[in-house]
């Protein structure tokens, strides 16, 4: 592969040109972590030295094993597993740039899409499983070229632990307190793009912030914050989550302190010293199999919003935002079906009963989703429907109702591979190989329908990132795009989803949303 250099003041960044004629600049350090739980410090490009080798992915944030990714391995044939990349809590804040090779030398000022990976704020990274070579190549063929950037951020307790003690430490050091360091890591990455992407042929004033699942929630949080780092947003399968209370955040911190063998009566310094001494494998172990960590409420980040308002409740987008493309999967939580199917009807009913926060709504929720049936298949179907709607699928329509350029899509293409545990479903994360146009779904051996879905997805993304409407805004005629091979096309919103019955008051809506989250993250014995 051919070497390609980008020159800045006192610094040369060396990447390579792939067989797709895409310039790859990998593992560029944009920030550094000096101490666990503390805010990261930006790393200016010039401070990296006279020469920067950017031909390999950088370290990932330490994290537990992602078993969900293993079950989708058939979709990543030929793709290097990210899990083979080293981990480092302190050196993981890296980003990767994929740009048309000609755009780099010409300083072409192309639009930029910055991708934030998902994983429940527990798993994931920005490396090989978001390889942008095929996507960037195809955007050029479509005449809608853009630059694709992926970035890492701190996960788990490294990036999403909040407490009185951490706030007190920040005050004692004369620093601003960041309840969610992982979100601020992302912001530092976006600021790096703003300051440096023109060197790689990108337009810093034409950035689309994008992401999936927890990354979609993150992208929306950047879109609505008062720090203007992006012009539009593209999000898939954004999680509908309520913010934890301060008491819940403190309880998580206190439990971690106890597991570190430190007394609750210890000083702030003693507690934090104990937590900072926990080795990485124990930091993962102490997550106890959690699939999701909810970010804490940050009044500075969400200034101007009512206290702890969920992102699906926002009533308008900032004036600077000129478009939002938001979508979900047809069968978002079908991948939890096997686990629930192993339980008896009685055990499922007991589990559901134990997580519904409002006693007065239990029977209504059970009846609405047929969870009081005596048939196992009906009950499991109800669990999938409830979690799909309340944890994911209501988001696109809620934001689609906003005035402005909000386009909605639904990914109906199913997993057609015989070896798949989830064959026949359009489940959470299935869209990611289509996003990156990996060979299993876009290569010459993929079926016609898989390739057609990939083509339609890439076309919509490329148009949107270049500032064009891929189809009409949802609020105009309440139409959304279905992506499903040769059957792709616009459809009318049926407005017959069960979740609507519960969105008649904030209390009822929160109960349903929290029920969906608790079932989605239910820990089986």
Automatic annotation (TrEMBL):
EC number per UniProt: 3.1.1.-
Keywords: Hydrolase
GO molecular function: hydrolase activity
Carboxylesterase type B domain mapped to chain residues: 14-502
Xref: SUPFAM superfamilies: alpha/beta-Hydrolases
InterPro entries (alphabetical): AB_hydrolase_fold (IPR029058), CarbesteraseB (IPR002018), Carboxylesterase_B_AS (IPR019826)
Family assignment from sequence similarity: Belongs to the type-B carboxylesterase/lipase family.
PANTHER family linked: CARBOXYLIC ESTER HYDROLASE, PUTATIVE (AFU_ORTHOLOGUE AFUA_7G01710)-RELATED
Name of this protein: Carboxylic ester hydrolase
Organism the protein comes from: Emergomyces pasteurianus Ep9510
């Amino acid at each position: 592969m051919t070497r390609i250099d980008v020159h800045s003041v006192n610094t040369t960044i060396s990447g390579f040109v792939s067989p797709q004629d895409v310039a790859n600049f990998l593992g560029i350090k944009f920030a550094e972590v000096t101490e666990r739980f503390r805010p990261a410090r930006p790393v200016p490009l010039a401070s990296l030295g006279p020469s920067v080798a950017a031909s390999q992915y950088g370290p990932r944030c330490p994290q537990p094993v992602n078993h969900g990714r293993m079950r989708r391995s058939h979709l990543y044939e030929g793709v290097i597993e990210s899990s083979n990349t080293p981990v480092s809590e302190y050196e993981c804040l890296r980003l990767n740039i994929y740009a048309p090779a000609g755009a780099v030398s010409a300083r072409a000022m192309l639009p930029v899409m910055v991708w934030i990976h998902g994983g429940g704020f527990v798993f994931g990274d920005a490396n090989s499983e978001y390889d942008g070579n095929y996507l960037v190549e195809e955007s050029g063929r479509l005449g809608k070229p853009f630059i694709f950037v992926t970035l890492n951020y701190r996960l788990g307790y490294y990036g999403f632990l909040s407490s009185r003690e951490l706030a007190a430490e920040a005050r004692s050091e004369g620093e601003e307190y960041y309840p969610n360091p992982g979100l601020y890591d992302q912001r530092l990455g976006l600021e790096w793009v703003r300051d440096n992407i023109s060197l790689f042929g990108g337009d810093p004033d034409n950035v689309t912030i994008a992401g999936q699942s927890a990354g979609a929630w993150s992208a929306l949080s950047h879109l609505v914050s008062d720090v203007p780092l992006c012009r539009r947003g593209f999000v898939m399968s954004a999680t509908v989550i309520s913010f934890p209370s301060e008491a819940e955040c403190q309880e998580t911190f206190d439990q971690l302190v106890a597991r570190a063998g430190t007394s609750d009566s210890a000083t702030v310094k003693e507690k934090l010293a104990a937590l900072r001494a926990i080795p990485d494998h124990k930091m993962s172990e102490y997550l106890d199999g959690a699939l999701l960590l909810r970010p804490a409420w940050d009044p500075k980040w969400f200034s101007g919003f009512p206290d702890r308002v969920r992102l699906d409740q926002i009533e308008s987008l900032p004036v600077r935002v000129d478009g939002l493309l938001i979508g979900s999967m047809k069968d978002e939580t079908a991948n939890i079906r096997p686990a629930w199917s192993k339980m008896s009807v009685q055990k499922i009913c007991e589990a559901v009963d134990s997580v519904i926060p409002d006693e007065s709504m239990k029977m209504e929720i059970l009846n609405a989703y047929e969870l009081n049936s005596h048939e196992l298949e009906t009950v499991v179907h109800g669990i999938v429907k409830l979690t799909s709607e309340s944890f994911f699928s209501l988001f696109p329509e809620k934001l689609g109702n906003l005035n402005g350029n909000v386009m909605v899509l639904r990914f109906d293409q199913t997993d057609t591979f015989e070896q798949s545990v989830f064959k026949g479903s359009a489940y959470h994360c299935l869209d990611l190989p289509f996003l990156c146009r990996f060979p299993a779904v876009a290569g010459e051996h993929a079926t016609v329908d898989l390739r057609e879905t990939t083509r339609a997805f890439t076309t919509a993304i490329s148009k949107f990132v270049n500032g064009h409407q891929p189809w009409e805004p949802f609020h105009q005629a309440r139409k959304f795009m279905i992506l499903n091979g040769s059957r792709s096309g616009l459809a009318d919103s049926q407005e017959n989803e069960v979740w609507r019955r519960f969105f008649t008051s904030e209390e009822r809506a929160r109960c349903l949303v929290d029920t969906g989250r608790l079932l989605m993250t239910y820990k089986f014995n």
